[in-house]
């Protein structure tokens, strides 16, 4: 599990946002395309790819993709 | 400390839920009675409620910001009982984007549910189901089969649905429909061929109430012969779903009986009134051993009933591919549904269960509106 793949997986959930806009420092909730459906897609993607279910609160408290990645890491079984 | 909390909705929270839903135009029709139905599940579900709730309220620092509810459906995989969650109302206040997963997953993760079903009502719920990797229903769910009984009324109904004509005053549309009807009547689907003749000698009768003497035996026989998935037609389920509507005339059940009085099949119609008159929608249609002759006769009965009641349209969505030619013989019109609405989705929580369950489009499931949520309120 690495941050590069994670950022790419998140970028794939967005249709209209240029992939180059995504870096570990991206404040993803400030992107114009951010929506409740993308929030749901994010949870579904993390469950599929990393086998863990994050909560809405985890997304809420994460500001950047790196924050979210760390959140996922912290709940992923070693 | 979390500011967002989600908890099972309580009967005492009806006013809060109503206030929340009425804050948007979309849910102006939502009533207290509808909310309270979450707590009036049939008896067979009561013991399961210990393991899961039917509705949830999402709060931010105590203030309601979201609500979701479900309908439970009892399904049988051969002779094993499963419980399905059918998504109902879903509302989230604007700006609370991150809370959608909380609402959806909390409902779907209730331990009592083995699978989730959906009969999508709009584009957004279709998107949600795709995100959740739900399996779509058979292709038949993407189309509506129909038979026009009154060209004039159908044109009036259609003119109210089309964006281009819906703003024209009703009186003008009425006259235009009246004048255009003779011309349209010359063409399909308005000029439908006559109905196929009766194929069985079973007796046709309207069923006035959910009578255990009729339905218990019917259900026993349906279940005993079940080789795939079957949604429960137990007396208490039917009573909960249709009982009240039978009294008000919203639902009509027509049955075919053998000489000893045993029910061989039934068709349930829902009447929907609009400016053009009454539209009848098939919400349940089933026969013992999937007998196609009985099924055909039931469709015939439904069309004759609707015509007698001056209905202008009979329509039906879904069911397996094998039975589509039969449907087409009675309901000759066909139109695609917008947004893939009325597409059924199913999501299994258990991978083994998913593997064991026949594919939706296969012979295993006589998959119709009763399996979705189209007839729950």
SSE map:
The complex is a heterodimer of chains A (78) and B (377).
Chain A: H1 3-11, H2 36-50, H3 56-61, H4 65-75
Chain B: E1 4-8, H1 14-21, H2 32-36, H3 43-46, E2 55-60, E3 63-77, E4 80-92, H4 100-108, E5 115-119, H5 123-131, E6 135-136, E7 143-148, H6 151-161, H7 163-166, H8 170-184, E8 203-207, H9 212-224, E9 229-231, H10 235-248, E10 251-257, E11 263-274, E12 277-287, H11 292-308, E13 313-317, H12 324-330, E14 333-336, E15 344-348, H13 351-356
Entry summary:
The complex is a heterodimer of chains A (78) and B (377). With 78 residues, chain A is mainly α. Chain A has helices at 3-11, 36-50, 56-61, 65-75.
Can you tell me about this structure?
The complex is a heterodimer of chains A (78) and B (377). Chain A is built from four helices and no strands. Chain A starts with a helix and ends with a helix. Chain A has one domain: ACP-like (Non-ribosomal Peptide Synthetase Peptidyl Carrier Protein, Chain A, Orthogonal Bundle), CATH 1.10.1200. Chain A has helices spanning 3-11, 36-50, 56-61, 65-75. Chain A is mainly α. Chain B is of the alpha+beta class. Chain B has two domains: 4-113, Gcn5-related N-acetyltransferase (GNAT) (Aminopeptidase), CATH 3.40.630; 142-338, Aminopeptidase. Helix content of chain B is 32%, strand content 28%. Chain B has 13 helices and 15 strands. In chain B, strands 1, 2, 3, 4, 5, 6, 9 and 15 form an eight-stranded mixed beta sheet that branches. Chain B has a seven-stranded mixed beta sheet with strand order 8-10-11-12-13-7-14, sandwiched between helices. In chain B, a hairpin with a 5-residue loop joins β10 and β11 (263-274). In chain B, α6 (151-161) packs across α8 (170-184). The radius of gyration of chain B is 21 Å and the shape is globular. Chain B starts with a strand and ends in a 21-residue tail after the last helix. The A-B interface holds A 29, 34-44, 48, 53-57, 59-60 and B 2, 4, 92, 96-102, 104-105, 124, 127-128, 131-133.
């Amino acid at each position: 599990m690495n941050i590069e793949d994670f950022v790419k997986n998140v970028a794939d959930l967005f249709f209209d946002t240029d992939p180059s806009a995504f870096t570990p420092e991206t404040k993803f909730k400030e992107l114009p395309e951010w929506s409740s459906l993308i929030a749901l897609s994010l949870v579904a993607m993390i469950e599929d790819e990393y086998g863990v279910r994050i909560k809405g609160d985890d997304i809420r408290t994460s500001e950047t993709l790196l924050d979210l990645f760390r959140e996922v890491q912290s709940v992923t079984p070693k | 400390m979390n500011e967002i909390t989600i908890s099972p909705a309580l009967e005492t929270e009806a006013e809060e839920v109503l206030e929340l839903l009425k804050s948007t135009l979309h849910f102006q029709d939502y009533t207290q009675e509808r909310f309270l139905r979450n707590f009036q599940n049939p008896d067979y579900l009561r013991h399961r409620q210990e393991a899961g709730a039917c509705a949830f309220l999402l709060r931010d620092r105590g203030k309601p910001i979201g609500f979701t509810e479900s309908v439970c459906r009892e399904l049988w995989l051969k002779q094993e009982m499963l419980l399905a969650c059918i998504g109902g109302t879903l509302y989230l206040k604007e700006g609370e984007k991150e809370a959608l997963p909380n609402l959806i997953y909390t409902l779907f993760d209730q331990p009592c549910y083995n699978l989730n079903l959906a009969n999508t009502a709009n584009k957004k719920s279709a998107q949600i189901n795709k995100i959740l990797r739900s399996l779509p229903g058979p292709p038949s769910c993407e189309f509506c089969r129909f038979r026009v009984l009154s060209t004039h009324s159908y044109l009036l109904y259609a003119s109210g649905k089309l964006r281009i004509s819906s703003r024209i005053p009703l009186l003008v549309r009425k006259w235009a429909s009246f004048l255009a009807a003779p011309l349209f009547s010359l063409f399909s689907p308005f000029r439908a061929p006559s109905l196929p003749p009766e194929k069985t000698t079973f007796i046709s009768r309207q069923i006035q109430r959910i009578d255990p003497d009729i339905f218990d035996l019917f259900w026993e026989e349906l279940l005993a012969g079940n080789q795939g998935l079957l949604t429960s037609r137990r007396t208490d389920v039917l009573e909960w779903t249709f009982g009240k509507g039978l009294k008000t005339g919203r639902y009509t059940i027509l049955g075919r009986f053998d000489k000893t009085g045993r029910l061989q099949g039934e068709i349930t119609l829902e009447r929907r009134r609009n400016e053009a008159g009454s539209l009848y929608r098939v919400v349940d249609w089933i026969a013992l051993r999937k007998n196609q002759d009985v099924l055909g006769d039931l469709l015939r009965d439904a069309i004759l009933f609707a015509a007698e009641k001056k209905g202008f349209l009979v329509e039906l969505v879904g069911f397996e591919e094998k039975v589509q030619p039969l449907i087409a013989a009675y309901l000759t019109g066909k139109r695609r549904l917008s947004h893939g609405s009325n597409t059924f989705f199913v999501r299994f929580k258990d991978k083994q269960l998913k593997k064991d369950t026949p594919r939706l489009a296969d012979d295993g499931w006589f998959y119709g509106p009763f399996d979705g949520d189209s007839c729950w309120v």
